[in-house]
Amino acid sequence: MQNRDGKIVVVLEASSLQGQPGGVGFYILEVLRRWVDFAGDRAKFIVISQKPISLELPNGVVKVVEPNPVLARIKAAAWIRYFAGRLCPYADLYWSGGTLLPKNTGSARTLLTVHDLNYLIVPETMSTPQRIAHLLWAKADMLRANYILTNSQGTNVRIQSLTGRSADAVINPPVRETIRAMSLDERSKILAQLEIRGRYFLAVATQEPRKNLESLIKAFLSIKRKPAFEGYQLVLAGKSGWKSKFLSKLIENSESAGVRSLGYVSDDQLSALYSGCEAFVFPSLYEGFGMPAREAIKCGAKVIATATPEIQEAVWGDAVFIEGAERDIADALEKIATRSKPEQSEGRSFEIGRKEIERLHNAIFCRQGDF
Questions:
Q1: Going edge to edge, which strands form the sheet with 8-13?
Q2: Exposure of 243 by Cβ count < 10 A (0-12 exposed, 13-18 middle, 19+ buried)?
Q3: What is the CATH number of the domain that holds 52?
């Protein structure tokens, strides 16, 4: 079906763009931008959400926000499942920005974005409503979706193992242009404003159980007792997440030992932090990709990261890999000083290329002769 202008109508459910978006939100936004640019006047894109979106969307994209104040307050998974589909009943393609589809999408074909399989691999790190919703519906939605988009080959392998089908497109998340390597002079000014002086290790993550920051802090405290690390700091960038009360208390109690929590930081501040750190540390228990680790590589930082297939893919294998236990992290922190900084290889791309969007677009539409 096409609208009166003869355009294909693509409806994106984009709850991930609400508030201060994290990695998932930025990924969806970048795919949307590149897809809008590729499709040109052949398609009309409509973004629907449960709550208002403050981010700037590509030109021509229409925003539709849940008009019912009662439905705007229910759990996100329930809203997506039972109410999101009604906002744009005339879609040709319903694109879910997350791992769940509405129960009914009418005659529209469906594109499901699978970012990770947290609910199976680290279910204890999810909120109870989200975990139950994914246990009930995620696998079934992967099986009934017409098309699947995912962010890494590692996640694609897990999808294959779970469902017996492969993603129709694998697009690695891009690093935003505003994340960049900074010169010594440029970053020094920003770090001074943040009151960061001397050597420091850096972690960038939402403060929640899956990110394993508790083990990182304890590992850092254990090496701080050694003379070689006496002046070091551990800098944490990222907003507070769910189940973070114990972590917040640990950070507070560790401030005198050099642990600093900056909260949410701007892209310029983040670039300075990556560029100036002794090493970036990413001890997450599980990631669908590992965007911060790739950002760190772009800025020239040495990386310590958990040895999952998805994170290894994100850093092109260029890191000191760990299993995530406290002792393992501490050993890596001590060894990282002797490692050279990552090479900026011409074969490494930090953007979503036109060919990747073309493959996604063609996988959905050109099979059917729509365009």
A1: 62-65, 43-49, 8-13, 93-96, 109-114, 147-150, 169-170
A2: middle
A3: 3.40.50.2000
- Cβ atoms of residues 283 and 205 within 8 Å: no
Do 204 and 77 share a structural domain?
Answer: no
Q: Are residues 261 and 200 in the same domain?
A: yes
Structural domain count of the chain = 2
**Do 198 and 63 lie in a common domain?**
no
In three-state secondary structure terms, 92 is coil
Which strands make up the sheet holding 233-237, listed edge to edge? 259-263, 233-237, 200-204, 279-282, 303-306, 320-322
Type of residue at 173:
P
Tell me the C-alpha distance between 28 and 351, whole Å: 13
Per-residue pLDDT of the chain in tens (371 residues, 90 and over written 9): 445 567 899 999 999 998 877 788 989 999 999 999 999 999 999 999 999 998 899 999 999 999 999 999 999 999 999 999 999 888 999 999 999 999 999 899 999 999 999 999 999 888 899 999 999 999 999 999 999 999 999 999 999 999 999 999 999 999 989 999 999 999 999 999 999 999 999 999 988 888 999 999 999 999 999 999 999 999 999 988 777 788 899 999 999 999 999 999 999 999 999 999 999 999 999 999 999 999 999 999 999 999 999 999 999 999 999 998 999 999 999 999 777 777 665 568 888 888 999 999 998 987 554 44
